[in-house]
Amino acid sequence: MKENQPNQLLRVNLQADKPVIPSGRAGERILEINLTAPPALDDKPHIPLNLSLVLDRSGSMHGEKLRYVKEAALHVIGLMREEDRAALVVYDDKVQVLMGSGYLTSQVKNEWRSKLSQLQSGASTFLYGGWLAGCRQVAEAVGDNTFNRTLLLTDGLANVGVRDPGALAVHAQELFLRGISTSCFGVGEDYDEHLLEAMANHVGGSFHFLETVHAIPLVFEREFTEIVNVTLKDVKITLTLPPSVVALVSAGWHLNRQGDQMTISLGSLTADQTQSVYLRLSNLASNGGRPLEIPLTVTGIGPDQAEHRISTSITFKPVTEAEEASLSPDKEVMARFAAVDLSDKAREALKLERAGDRIGSSNLIQSSLLQHEPHISDQTRDKYTRYSEQFSLGLDKVERKRRHYQEYQAMRNRQAIRDYRLAIGHRGMFAQIEDQSVLIDTAAPLSIGLQAEWAFMDRHYPLAQEHGGITPEDLSNLLGKPVDIVLGMDILRELYLRLDPQRGVIT
After folding, report:
1. Which of 189, 190, 55, 193 has the alpha carbon at shortest distance from 122?
2. 339, 288, 295: which is closest to 318 by C-alpha?
3. What pLDDT score does 46 carry?
4. Residue 495: how many CB atoms within 10 A of its CB?
5. Which residues are CB-contacts of 363 (< 8 A; sequence separation ≥ 6)?
6. Can you state the angle between helices 331-354 and 193-201, rounded to 10 degrees?
């Protein structure tokens, strides 16, 4: 069932797996809420930015990592306007506010360059202290129409101060109520991905995994591009539910329920962005045989500080149990819900695997697959069956983070983007992709490799062992450089590539 309100820049669509509930007993329905943010307007006002960059300078950040972090920070500051504000906080076992929140005049930007050029790595990782100091800088500069966000980067486990994900999430929620969001950037293999994601989820920010140091400036730039294209902030969905109804929300969104009011906070949306939210509603029952209506209101603040508000509802008609059972659920809704819910459960399974409960992790994947079996594709079934097998054997740190980030992006309907090291020379165009030396050859119709298949970007691609009598070993000998995979057009045509030879990165 769809409900739309015309003449609104913000658009809302509601759809359930079935538009009915059984009249003789309590029922369960899947509700899909789709929000589409207003488009960008040529004459839209610029939302003044109020940012804090919180950078890990612990001992593990020495050398190349810290160099790329400095480059990323300078790039973001260079993109900001004079009416924007920013603060620079660094931390190891101690916290330093190198630049208090201030407007970014030319003189202030020069001071940033000077401070960053002198930055060196230090000792342990006081993540909580650095993050809180950055948020305080943002809080002191909050205005009526500012976009307030802390950008937190770390490459290690928090080993000083508050380290419990639950406690950090509580602090994050308190800050979110004051309009301050946080985006978290995890670099390398040692940070706690579940902690950083929980922090970002509870404050309407984003989580990013930077597998290579070369990705740091690019991902910071991507985050900044999203921020400046926000057309709706403080987005909230409020549902009025009967007291007996239990609502479970997939994808880790921050929510609050008081009595019959449940509010889901989505943070900000960029121009024309569509965000889907899925709820499993249990104990749905009609009152005296009357239809059950669930009202819903979506609110958000635009760049001009005007409130966007849409009120709508979805109604479930009571029918006999036989009629309800005979009505097939909407296949497309259930397929979309299954994709998000499986990603959500995979994240929970990864927590179990990380904690050492490999059997529990594998069983959670298997039970989720069984639940969604009628609504998933063969490709999805194969993917999570492999997960179940891999989780039961255990993952290394990098593979665990790859899987987690992949599922996070899928769960939040985000485009999957990866950055890898690129080298272009007379021997060809090589990318170092997840421990594989990959020769990118747009003239090759077929991909070949040392292994029979290649797991990449949520897919398993079959690889031939030779083409035209040429094997990867032959190419390695010919080029004097290891070749694990030759990426031909059979796979390349399914990917969108961006080359940045200057930075040595392929996206």
Report:
1. 55
2. 288
3. 75
4. 11
5. none
6. 130
| Number of helical (H) and strand (E) elements in the chain, helices listed first | 13, 25
Measured in residues, the chain has a length of: 507
CB of 206 closer than 8 Å to CB of 200? yes
- Strands 85-91 and 95-103: what pairing? antiparallel
Closest CA to 26 of 370, 324, 331, 371: 324
Q: What is the pLDDT of residues 481-501, one digit of tens each?
A: 899 999 989 998 988 888 888
Q: How far apart are the first and last CA of the chain?
A: 39
Span 372-398, pLDDT tens digits: 999 999 989 999 999 999 999 999 998
Sign of torsion, CA 283 170 225 406?
A: negative
The alpha helices in 328-435, defined as continuous H runs, are 331-354, 358-372, 378-393, 397-411
Using DSSP's 3-state secondary structure scheme, residue 363 falls into helix
This prediction has a pTM of: 0.87
Q: 289 pLDDT exceeds 90?
A: no
Q: What is the dihedral angle through the alpha carbons of 286, 239, 260, 308, rounded to the nearest 10 degrees?
A: -140
